[in-house]
Amino acid sequence: LLREELNPTREAIWSRVHFDTVWNKWVISILVPLYDSDEYLGFTGTDVELKTLLSHLPAPDSRQGFLIFDQQGHIISAPNLRFKRSENSVTSGKAISIPALNNV
């Protein structure tokens, strides 16, 4: 994924939101290429739990709100929006342990 020739801009790469079956959590991953001067050494990365990421967003109120979409246009978070969970393809049929996502 982060071979030098696949990332000529040397930018960090964010993954799609995905369910980590080892930790049983929804996460997003970030991978960062490592260089010493101009020599490619490899990459490092980490997973950020979606629940943690969402906890840093401002709380919506009756005057304002927000939607968060992934690159495919699926809704990740929509605190003030109500519709059937079965219509949200982000969940892929998995149980969601993040209360904020149960409302999308």
TrEMBL record:
Pfam families: MCP-like_PDC_1
UniProt-recorded name of the protein: Diguanylate phosphodiesterase
Native source organism of the sequence: Pseudoalteromonas ruthenica
